[in-house]
Amino acid sequence: MTVAVKEKSKSETLVSTPDNRPLKRDTDYKRKKKRNKFRRRAAIEPVIGHLKTDFRMGQNYLHGAISPQINAFLAAAGWNLKKMMLQLKDQAFYLLQFLLRLLNPINYMLAC
Q: Which stretches of the chain are assigned E, i.e. beta strand?
């Protein structure tokens, strides 16, 4: 299966969309690169969906010319903070286990 790319220009942004018509002039390498590009994009779409629902990006509540960029940066910062908090929680749990083993080594030796 081959994937052709149709590029559309909307203002200054170039949008690549998949096209079902295979191109005969494409080499196998070029077809593989196009296929990987769209697979990468398909992996990002669920993240964008979570951003829209979890971080209120479905509607822009800010006003002004650069409000969409501000909204996207704030949502990305929230996403990154959420990931960092999960990592911090895991590290704190392991640190607590380590400290408990240091303070009370006999109970942990009996349990093993």
A: 4-10, 13-19
72 in Cβ contact with 55 (< 8 Å): no
Does this model's pTM top 0.70? My answer is: no
Contacts of 50 (CB under 8 A, 6+ apart): 79
Q: Name the 3-class secondary structure at 41.
A: helix
Question: 38 φ, ψ to 5°?
Answer: -75, -25
Asked whether the predicted pLDDT for residue 87 surpasses 90, the reply is: yes
pLDDT band at 1 (very low <50, low <70, confident <90, very high): very low
What pLDDT, on the 0 to 100 scale, is given for residue 58? 77
| Distance between CA atoms of residues 20 and 25, nearest Å | 15
DSSP 2: -
CB contact at 8 A, 62 and 70: yes
